[in-house]
Amino acid sequence: MVARLLDLITSGLNKYQRVLGALGVSLILTACGAREVVVQGNFPKPLMDPLPLTVGVIYTDEFAQHEIFDEAAGRAESDWLVKTGDAQVEFWNTLLNGMFEGVVLIKDSQSLAAHQNSVDAVIIPAVADLQYTIPLHTNIKIYEIWMKYRFKMVALENVHSNEDGDLSINPDQYFADWTLTAYGKTPTAFLQSDEEAVNLAAVVALRDAGANFATSFTRVPDIATWMTEEIQPLPSEATENKGASDE
Amino acid sequence: MSKITQRCLIAGLVVAASILQGCVNATVDEMTFLEPTEGIGDASVVIMGRRHAPDYETEFDFIECIGDHIRRGDNSISVLHELEFINMMYPWFEPRTAPLRTDDIDKLLAQQRVADRFEELKLEYMIWIDGSTVETNSSGSMTCGVGPGGAGCFGFGTWGNASDYEATIWDFTDEIEVGRISANTSGQSYMPAVVVPIPIIAPVQGTACDSLGDQLLKYLSAKM
Asked: Are B94 and A208 a contacting pair at CB < 8 A?
């Protein structure tokens, strides 16, 4: 029925007019459709002395496929879908590999069993909240992304494998549970689309999250306590302490 | 009007548009000391923008413009590319972690890998640029139309821009601040349109870039 109606409407038009019409219709449809951003970026390895620890990382499905869908508030706006999952995994892999001497991915019962004696602790990142703004929302010529992460750490022996192969952890057994925030902004630029700008703001926010995590990790009280128990004093520190006690 | 006359008129307007420029007022203040009298030799310099303020950030292309200006003026000066440097030093020069005072350099150098990287780069000067260019006012209106005989615009638009930048020079070896240079520029741009819009753009940011670039070049170069 619709096809016949379209035929009827377009039968009087020549080839070029039809092409122009189709382009016009597609432009209108694009304007009404959802705007989708799959966050992509190049993330540098951190330049720091790695902590003498081997950590396991569990990326939950929710984290690895993280996305935010924002429904349009009015006719002038579009729905927005911002997918950060792939970029999150890529970024945290790069960062953690630079921060620790060893990093292993714990994704199922097999990898859990394989690393039973080689991992000091397991870290589980989660995106607790993500908000974004574009100039249309704020009338300011800046695109912004704000993220809140929640990190939990647990000893490997407290990570259990279910019969179906999934991993589970008793909430009481986390020895550290903390949050951190990250912010990224990018100004409007000539020939830059909304999608490109939101992507750039997300990449800046991820880098900020990494900078915040890398510089504050050892200062999280529960982590500091755990590290003093876990890491043996380095030989130089041991000598200094011995010297001090001798005096 | 014949077609040839019309084409000549349009070509003339396009040429006029490319020649005409709006006026820019520029003020440059300089306070520097401990100038390297024999240049910086084979050491390098990095120029970076401040981006920790919530309401503005120093534009990447402005930093690139100053770097290019210095390289053009004295190709013996090795100016590191800002983004490459930030990536190379990640996470120590992100808006959250970048050193704000020269006292913070010691904390950076406490990280052995960071200290090694600086040595590898032979970094002698770190120049921080803080500021931005904003639109101060705009007015006027313009109407454009397309018809079977052609297209054209009619109207008049004007807008003002202002740049306010300050460069702070750190001597990285001695870990002290050795100078501050500021450049304030402002100008009004115009766009009259009779069939063809003729943009008369005031190069406000470009003038700020040249002003700061000249002063930095004078400081760093042995040739000046």
From this structure: yes
Range of the domain at A23: 1-32
Q: A80 and A23, same structural domain? A: no
- Closest residue to A47, CB basis, from B57, B96, B117: B117
Backbone torsions φ then ψ of B210, nearest 5 degrees: -65, -40
ipTM comes to 0.82
Residue for token pair 């640029």: B129
Q: How far is B38 from chain A (nearest CA, A)?
A: 33
User: A49 CA to chain B: closest CA distance, Å?
Assistant: 6
| pLDDT value of position A166 | 83
Q: In what order do the strands lie in the sheet with B24-32?
A: B24-32, B176-197, B150-171, B123-147, B44-49, B78-80
Residues of chain B with pLDDT under 70: 1-20, 222-224
The conformation of residue A218, written as its DSSP 8-state character, comes to G
How far does chain B reach from its first CA to its final CA, in angstroms?
55
Strands (E), A91-173: 100-105, 121-133, 142-154, 159-161, 167-169
Beta bridge partners of B224: none
CA distance A214 to chain B (A): 8
Residue of B nearest to A216 (CA): B97
Q: How many domains is chain B partitioned into structurally?
A: 1
Q: What pLDDT, on the 0 to 100 scale, is given for residue B35?
A: 78
